[in-house]
Amino acid sequence: MRTERMAHILIGLAVGTLLTGSVAAEEGKVGEGWRLHVINAESRFEAAGVLDVNRDGKLDIVCGGFWYEAPTWKKHFLRDIKEEGEYHYDFANLAMDVDGDGWTDTVGAAWHDKMVYWVRNPGKAGGPWPVYQIDTPGNMETALAYDINGDGQLDILPNIMSAAAWYEFHRDPSAPQGVRWQKHVLPQEAAGHGIGAGDVNGDGLCDIVTPKGWLQQNPDGSWTWRSEFELGYAGIPILVHDVDGDGNPDILWGLGHNYGVFWLQQTRDADGNRSWTKHLIDDSWSQPHFMLLADLTGNRRLELVTGKRHRAHNGNDPGGNDPVCVYYYSFDRSSGQWTRHTLHEGGRVGFGINTVAVDIDGDGDIDVVAPGKSGLYLFENLIK
């Protein structure tokens, strides 16, 4: 179904091996049902991807200028990445085989050089991964992968502050690197801090959600602007999900540089007119810059997974120097209440700007890979 393809897809291959990375001895509390592995406590990169780098059937981790080989998480050089202050020119690592050669590549975006790019996996040849520019549309905090046009292939939706666009690609032997990229400019209303995608109105088409409203995709591929809500300085992504099970997609988001995780409940009257009601989930911690949906408990319902981005603005945000934390939230549809569950709090483990939930060890449950300025960590799911 097209609606299934619209979800923010976190791709993983099933593998049959146990994790043997070092178990964390970090200070702080690890939540019940989880085992914390320190992949690299010295890493300062904020974006991670999970992919089978060397095609050995095991899922590896790509983070910044390195990849970490499963199951021992041996560190390998991948490429040089520029630094500027506390930041790196590496704000996303989206896993996909761009050029169709059977080796999984990554697609990224960066704030400082304003570039959307892809990084080619050299495969058996080895060596540094070459970087190919796609576009330089402006400052970006990260990029997301959705099937926006419903053709069954993931597209790239960067969070461009000054202008909005999405990118599709097609394999073409006559094009440079065998890939042809096509840019689609979106209405200016979609620009700003925060973006996401999903089927907001239930018509089977992928819409785009912004802090100031949403873009309705029409059957001909054009867009209609709907200024129906105001989310504030939202994190990325803004999620579309039917929280309460009434058949109407709702919206979840965090204030990426302030306090607050929220959901926006969609209801419709007898004539089909939409209305939106804002609900607070948690405002006890700040900088929920990235979030995702995943079935962590195996109950076939999606939980909201998020955490504090460590020093998002170098400690200058409200609560910017408070302890980091990682939580997931479950919603009880009968009571209408959220329950917070701890993955980690009180230590060094936070959430960056491109975190991944995937069954990395192939044991049938969903694990969480958490990069950030305070290190790269893996939460092994033991709930089952």
UniProtKB/TrEMBL annotation:
Q: Which Gene3D superfamilies match?
A: Integrin alpha, N-terminal
Q: Does the keyword Signal apply?
A: yes
Alphabetical list of InterPro entries matching this protein? FG-GAP, Integrin_alpha_N
The record's SUPFAM superfamilies line, in alphabetical order, gives: Integrin alpha N-terminal domain (SSF69318)
Source species, domain of life: Bacteria
Its keywords, alphabetically, are:
Signal
The protein's name in its UniProt record: VCBS repeat-containing protein
Recorded source organism is Anaerobaca lacustris
